[in-house]
């Protein structure tokens, strides 16, 4: 009995498309042949995703099984076609496959790199080592001692076999990898096979890559190193594509391409006494913030040109959002209370509430609380002083 497609992707039968996509992404990157994975497992994962991600095919599979799906599909699709469409043409070079081995698709070696918000702000250089199939110098990338290869007679050099099957009035055409040359389109005589690369034309080599991250780099931005990937059987060299991922920061958040927000805690005493606030910026320098008016925690304060910086000289803005740290308890002495009332210059004569009504009032207030970020006020910097050290 064939393995369940749901088990292949590691999801349950009720999995939605987001769960399928997440599971496929993880498994496809893990098992892709260009990253040292098994080609058969990669094809199996891709076939499962293609069927379950299609509502009609999934319905047929759930009701009648895999054979019913295959009869209506016209044969399995190339796993790399699905992979390329899933990750986008920027990840894998968009080159059409035809029956000529010399025009086969140039696949890229894809990897992800995770950086911090600090590295986004300042830019950085990261050195990383990759295992890359480089051209065999012993046979000059031919796979044979003499440099000669024979065109496969079974597939005529195309690397694929075409099978035609009649189903009633319909004719079904299926393409599969050539069983004789394993999709290479050529055959090397065993006696003439290069012993150093075993006829594979390439040797796995450790290669150090220096990855330069520019200031202001964005999430999912791609850094392409042309001709730094695997050496292919058609004597082409694929590209190395690095996808940038940004780690979430505890205090800083990116608002858009150039602007950032920092969430800063301020004590109640500092708030009421207009104390200057020291905020650590992403470049590890201190920003000293002060305001001529009482800080409003419901508003955001903008500091012009303190946002992300770019190599072209453009600079975004920094927004500060304050959160009040209230003390756990206060001195209940009436003298302190009266002094605080005088300082705040407020009339509290209408606030003589009976103790039994306090709980009810709090509960009523909680029901009216709404958190709507879209209504958030932003201060334009008037009355705000700021300097960086």
- Tell me the number of strands: 17
**Helical amount:** 10-25%
CATH topological fold name of the domain at 252-335 and 373-388: HSP40/DNAj peptide-binding domain
> Biggest sheet: strands side by side, in what order?
10-11-15-14-16
The end-to-end distance, rounded to whole angstroms, is 69 Å
Q: In this structure, how is the largest beta sheet organized?
A: 5 strands, mixed
Say which CATH homologous superfamily of the domain at 252-335 and 373-388 is assigned. Answer: Urease metallochaperone UreE, N-terminal domain
Stretches with pLDDT under 50, minimum 5 residues: 88-105, 351-376
What's the shape? Answer: elongated
Mean pLDDT: 80
- Radius of gyration, CA atoms, in whole angstroms: 32 Å
The oligomeric state of the chains shown is single chain
Percentage of residues in DSSP E strands? 25-35%
Describe this structure in words.
With 389 residues, this protein is α+β, with helices and mostly antiparallel strands. Among the domains are: 87 residues, Helix Hairpins; 100 residues, HSP40/DNAj peptide-binding domain (Sandwich), CATH 2.60.260.20. The protein is 25% helix and 27% strand. The chain has 10 helices and 17 strands. It has a 5-stranded mixed β-sheet. Helix 2 packs antiparallel against helix 3 and helix 3 crosses helix 6. The longest helix is centred in the first third of the chain and has 15 residues. It starts with a helix and ends with a strand. About 11% of the residues have low confidence.
